[in-house]
Amino acid sequence: MADDRPDLLPLEGPFRSVLCVVAHPDDIEYGTAAAVHRWVGEGAHVAYFLLTRGEAGIDTMSPEEAGPVREAEERESARRVGVDVVEFAGRADGAIEAGVPLRREIAAAIRRHRPDLVVGQTWAEFFGPNMVNQADHRAVGLATLDAVADAGNRWLHRDLLDEGLEPWAGVKVVAVAGSPSPTHAVDVSGEHFEASVHSLEAHAAYNAALPDDFPSPRELLQMILGGGGEAAGVEHAWTAQVVIDRR
């Protein structure tokens, strides 16, 4: 029988600076945190930029209560993989609109952190059969791709210059997490996988509100990263679609 595994290339570093851009707390913890743990261990400075605090994500908590809880959980989950820079844009959870203002906000984060690797999230309509990708994910994912170009253009979002944010065209790689068409993999076997489980477990209030039959953090990451590992030929792997590679 033919081998139908994707032909994944290794996403090799080392990276000097990494910026992860997502919509909600826990978006990074569904797999990407394992790669973050590896990059930090290799000497990269990693920062997180989240567009919302995920305040609409817990049915049993009002947004006013859930927002601070989820922000605190995200900061702790980041700490567990070696990240201490976690920024929140404060946009309304579930109501992110694609467009120039969103691109500007992400471009500003790119100019602040000046990464050589940007990790975004997929803007595909579906994760798989009958599994719709959430609206905020789609808006943020596509805006991140556009914001990489915006960040390097002096004549776009010119008010950022007044804030001291000079253009940054130094992004070498843009990798899209959760893509249905992955092209690259990072081996996250061993301690990196364990760190990612510990990181997802930090979302205690969110996890507690999930249905009883929802997989535990370890079970879920085994499915995600174990499946990636099977595709990459290792025990555990984070997979992503590299859409820009200027190395």
Explain this structure.
The chain has a single domain, classed as LmbE-like (Rossmann fold), CATH 3.40.50. The chain has an eight-stranded mixed sheet, with helices on both faces. The chain has helices at residues 32-41, 63-79, 100-113, 135-151, 159-162, 191-201, 204-208, 217-232, and strands spanning 9-10, 17-22, 45-52, 85-91, 117-121, 126-128, 131-132, 173-177, 184-187, 237-245. Helices cover 38% and strands 21% of the residues. The chain is globular, with a radius of gyration of 17 Å. The longest helix has 17 residues, at 63-79. The termini are far apart. The protein is of the alpha/beta class.
Summarize this entry quickly.
The chain has 247 residues and is of the alpha/beta class. The chain has one domain: Rossmann fold (3-Layer(aba) Sandwich).
Give the helices and strands, then pairings:
Blueprint: E1 9-10, E2 17-22, H1 32-41, E3 45-52, H2 63-79, E4 85-91, H3 100-113, E5 117-121, E6 126-128, E7 131-132, H4 135-151, H5 159-162, E8 173-177, E9 184-187, H6 191-201, H7 204-208, H8 217-232, E10 237-245
Parallel strand pairs: 1-9, 2-3, 2-5, 3-4, 5-8
Antiparallel strand pairs: 6-7, 8-10, 9-10
